[in-house]
Amino acid sequence: MASKNIIVKFSDGRKCPQLGLGTWKSKPGEVSQAVKDAIDIGYRHIDCAFVYGNEKEVGDAITEKIKEGVVKREDLFITSKLWNTFHRPDLVRGALMKSLQNLNLEYLDLYLIHWPQAYKEDGELFPADENGKIQFSDVDYVDTWKALEPLQAEGLVKSLGVSNFNSRQLDRVLEIASIKPVVNQVECHPYLIQRKLKEFCSSRGVMLAAYSPLGSPDRPWAKPDEPRLLDDARLKAIADRLGRTVAQVLIRYQLERGNIVVPKSVTRSRIESNFSVLDFQLSKEDLELIDSFDCNGRFVPMTASLGHKHHPFENDEF
Ligand SMILES: NC(=O)C1=CN([C@@H]2O[C@H](COP(=O)(O)OP(=O)(O)OC[C@H]3O[C@@H](n4cnc5c(N)ncnc54)[C@H](OP(=O)(O)O)[C@@H]3O)[C@@H](O)[C@H]2O)C=CC1
Ligand SMILES: CC(=O)C(C)=O
Question: What residues does the NADP-dependent oxidoreductase domain cover (predicted)?
């Protein structure tokens, strides 16, 4: 089963299955089964986050599959992410310990700073004022990074990375880092191909991990009149010609571009077909055609943090 995975190597020498299962919006009552199905199908990489509110149920599934002897811990690659309310250096270790406890793991394979912008540290994950506006904290993510580094030395996490960092923010971390980030996990799909950010990351030995690769149709703020990537007629034509689904083309596109990719599903048949992408390739012409659909179309703009001095998408080109 594990041989179905393509393995990529990080700048720190560690290995990671290129295709993983996303878990955002996977309801606690559904995610255990989804993770168990995924492991049975051959997935070895699960993308989690404290803020998804389902780490405990993901952990239950992992524990069960290890107990059954289907996988060993070392066969799995588990990512989690430090939420915005835990950026203050004295809160970082506790946040990681909570995710480890939730997931019933002794270590994570990868821990990411989820976003560069910090929120007020008052216990709520989305601390809002009486008008519903998120309360910001001015902790600088470079100080958060410095607090993360000793956790790798302690063996609590194998690799460290960032998520939703723009090029300037990533460079600031690289300037002060003793341990370099191995990954920048960002939104990436044909409407937002991230050409410049990808080149920037590659030039610094940072791997790009693509989130929302199917266009996140179940994002809570989706409007009925917004374009749906999975329904794009141009992608459908490519998929039909190749005898594949649009989702398979979207996932294969990321693999061919050398990106890690973490499509989410709680539907067994989709979890299975999303993983069946090793027996076909996209031609150079198809890859270029898909690149041409780029329209700076962002499905996860994080509008709740607009105005934050570290909001990644407001002041920098990429
Ligand atoms: N670092 C960050 O800030 C972020 C990280 N992420 C990570 O990336 C993952 C993936 O992104 P996400 O935004 O969830 O969205 P995706 O682009 O992966 O889309 C998920 C949606 O697509 C549906 N779907 C899955 N497979 C198929 C298929 N074969 N055919 C048709 N529909 C399908 C799912 O439905 P169903 O489940 O009902 O089958 C679900 O509604 C997240 O779950 C999370 O782990 C995402 C956003 C931000
Ligand atoms: C889904 C996710 O990771 C967000 C919105 O931060």
Answer: 19-293
Are 21 and 38 in contact by the 8 Å Cβ rule? The answer is yes
Mutation choice for ligand 1 from 229, 252, 265, 274, CB with most ligand atoms inside 8 A: 265
How far are the Cα atoms of 31, 191, 215, 217 from residue 222, in angstroms, in the given order?
A: 21, 15, 10, 7
Binding residues for substrate: 114
Cα gap 290→287, rounded to integer Å: 5
Does the annotation count 253 as an active-site position?
no
Which ligand 2 atom minimizes the distance to the CA of 81? 3
Closest atom, ligand 2, to C-alpha of 49: 3
**Could you tell me how many helices (H) and strands (E) the chain has, helices first?**
10, 12
Could you give the C-alpha distances from 216 to 5, 88, 158, 227, 228, in angstroms and in order? 23, 30, 29, 11, 9
pLDDT in tens, 98-131: 999 999 999 999 999 999 999 999 889 999 999 9
Q: Tabulate helix, strand, coil % of the chain (nearest 5).
A: 40, 15, 45
Q: Which of 112, 189, 212, 235 to mutate to test the pocket of ligand 1 (most atoms within 8 A of CB)?
A: 212
- Residues 131-178: tens digit of each pLDDT: 999 999 999 999 999 999 999 999 999 999 999 999 999 999 999 999
Q: How many CB atoms lie within 10 A of CB 42?
A: 17
Contact (Cβ atoms closer than 8 angstroms) between residue 281 and residue 257: no
Judged by its nearest atom, the ligand closest to the C-alpha of residue 212 is 1
pLDDT on residue 3? 62
For residue 84 and ligand 1, the question of a CB distance below 6 A is answered with no
pLDDT in tens, 233-285: 999 999 999 999 999 999 999 999 999 999 999 999 999 999 999 999 999 99
- DSSP, residue by residue, 41-71: HT--EEE--GGGS-HHHHHHHHHHHHHTTS-
